[in-house]
Structures are given as C-alpha cells and as structure tokens.
Design goal:
Layout: E1 10-15, H1 22-29, E2 34-35, E3 38-45, E4 48-56, E5 63-64, E6 66-73, E7 78-82, H2 91-98, E8 106-110, E9 116-120, E10 125-133, H3 139-148, E11 157-165, E12 177-180, E13 193-196, E14 206-210, H4 212-221, E15 227-230, H5 233-237, E16 247-252, E17 260-262, E18 265-269, H6 274-289
Parallel strand pairs: 1-3, 7-8, 10-11, 10-16, 12-13, 12-14, 14-15, 16-18
Antiparallel strand pairs: 2-5, 3-4, 4-6, 8-9, 17-18
Helix pairs in contact: 3-6
The chain binds zinc ion.
Zinc ion binds at residues 211-212, 232, 234, 252-254.
Length: 298
C-alpha cells in the first residue's frame, strides 16, 4: 500500500553521522524530543538517505518524547530528488516524481518552497483518459494533468492516456468529400475534398466526420440523411482497452454542464470547467478504489 505523510503533518530532515540503520538511528534519535506534528523523519548521511517513522510518547506541549523509531526504508531503498517545479504536498505530483525512478521503494522529494515530502511503495490509482486529436495537445488530458498538479486532497493518481487520432478513423486512402465541424482543429484529409459545417456549405455527397451534436446541426441545415463517422469520445471509449475494474474519464459532445457516471466510465461535458474535471477525477478515484473484486467495466 502506498504511504504518504499525513496531510497536516510535518516531515523533518536531519543530517546525522551515525550509520543509517535501525539501531544507531534509534539510539541517536530517541535521545531528544520531537515536535508534536512530526510523524516521519528523513535522515541523511554522506549523500545517502533513509526514512524513519517516529513513535512519539505522550506530551502536552509543542514537543513530545520520542519513544522509538521504525526504519521504513534504508539507504539502498531510498532516493532523494530535488524537483523545485513540483508541489511536494500533492500526492499525484510525488508519484510523478517517483515514476522517474521506477522500482525504488521510497522516494523523498524536495519540491517547491523547499518543502520535503515522500512516497513509500508508490502504487498510483490508474485513471484512463480517452480524448481525441486534433487539436493538439489533447485538451481533456492536458487539463486533467493540470488539475492533478494541485489536487492535494486526492490520493496519488496516474493518468493513462488513450489519445485517438481522428485521421485513424478514416479509411486508409480517403476519397470523395468529408464534412468537418469547423476549421478550429486544423485537421486535414489528404486526397479528399473538405468542407466545414459551421460555414453551412452547399450540400455535397460527403461523409460527416463529427459527433452527435454535429450530426444534429447537420440535420437542422440539410434535409437528406448523411453518412457519419462518429468522433464522440464517449462512443470511442467503448472500444478502449481498459483492464476490468479500472476506471476511464472521457467527454461527450452532448453534455453541457454536468458529469455523468456510466459504470466504470465518468463522462464530462465537451467544454468541461476545471470544477467539472476536479469532480470527475474524485469520482473516478472513488469508483476505482471501491473494493469490488469482480468489478468489470461495462
Ligand atoms: Zn457525445
């Protein structure tokens, strides 16, 4: 199980000149009181680092006697990273740093504001994200990443991207005419004639490359039925390769202001606010962490 420091606890950092082993550390550290909000201590010696848990005795003031220490990770299992661009108070940010050193049990991070924190036995909650491009970068994925950078009340999350290139939905050598929703995405279809729905061009024998909302707009302006390649991420998500029990976040062209839960899928509006996205992530984490051994994503 992943261990992070308690959110309202402090981690002290101490340079010592005894071996980074349980016995010598216990002898040294139990000889002095500790601040009452300290539960963990990062101890360093000669460029090496270890992590101990502090077992505090009863105390009423700012300091408590230290009754014992438990070596959680010795120097062979611990690395110390300087990542001044990263907020070490955010579990997902700590896990992103830990991902740089795969296989290491204990990663101590000195992040922004000189704040030091750690993650022990990193095991993020995996949240799959399905989005479409162009435009680049994939907006939903990019915005969820930005939300996670400050999500200090969520457990550590790793976003698993499923980015669908709209061009891959086309036949290998597209011919004829395609109708795109607008010019905004910068999408090209080589070898085919392109028109844009928002310009309401004269009707041609085209294939609409768009979502259900584009289809509805098309039907408003034109009488005849249209061939369509559905680009709605919600529809594409049904074919995403997501292991049973894991959760996926995507967006839908038809949603305007609220999220919806569909089994193990959380769907946000196409133009989701950061509030929507924050809520989508916490919903996804809740679904993913509910004990559900036989859980399957429909
Ligand atoms: Zn949709």
């Amino acid at each position: 199980m992943t261990t992070f420091p308690g959110r309202y606890r402090e981690i002290s950092v101490t340079d010592v000149d005894v071996p980074l082993e349980a016995g010598p550390l216990r002898a040294l550290l139990t000889s002095r009181p500790v601040y009452r909000r300290s539960d963990h201590m990062v101890v360093r010696r000669g460029g090496r680092t270890a992590l101990v848990r502090l077992v505090r005795g009863p105390g009423t003031g700012l300091f408590s006697p230290l009754e014992d220490v438990e070596l959680l990770a010795g120097p062979d299992d611990t690395v110390y990273l300087h990542r001044p661009e990263l907020d070490a108070g955010v579990p997902s940010a700590l896990l992103a740093a830990a991902a740089e050193v795969p296989g290491v049990r204990c990663v101590v991070v000195e992040g922004a504001y000189g704040h030091v924190s750690f993650v022990l036995d990193p095991a993020p909650v995996r949240v799959h994200v399905l989005d479409v491009v162009p435009p680049h970068p994939a907006k939903l994925l990019d915005q969820l990443r930005r939300v996670l950078e400050t999500a200090d009340d969520l457990p550590g999350v790793e976003l698993v991207p499923h980015v669908v290139e709209l061009a891959d939905l086309l036949p290998p050598e597209p011919r004829g005419a395609y109708l795109l929703p607008c010019r905004g995405g910068g999408m090209e279809v080589r070898g085919a004639a392109i028109a844009y729905l928002d310009e309401v061009p004269p009707r041609a024998d085209w294939t609409l490359l768009g979502c259900a909302r584009s289809r509805a707009i098309h039907d408003f302006f034109y009488d005849e039925p249209v061939r369509q390649i559905d680009t709605c991420p919600r529809a594409l998500a049904r074919a995403a390769d997501v292991p049973p029990g894991e959760v996926l976040v995507t967006k839908c062209c038809l949603f305007e202001d609220r999220n919806e839960i569909d089994g193990h899928t959380v769907v946000t509006p196409w133009g989701a606010s950061f509030g929507n996205l924050r809520e989508a992530l916490s919903t996804a984490v809740r679904i993913a962490t509910v004990a559900e051994p036989a859980g399957r994503r429909p």
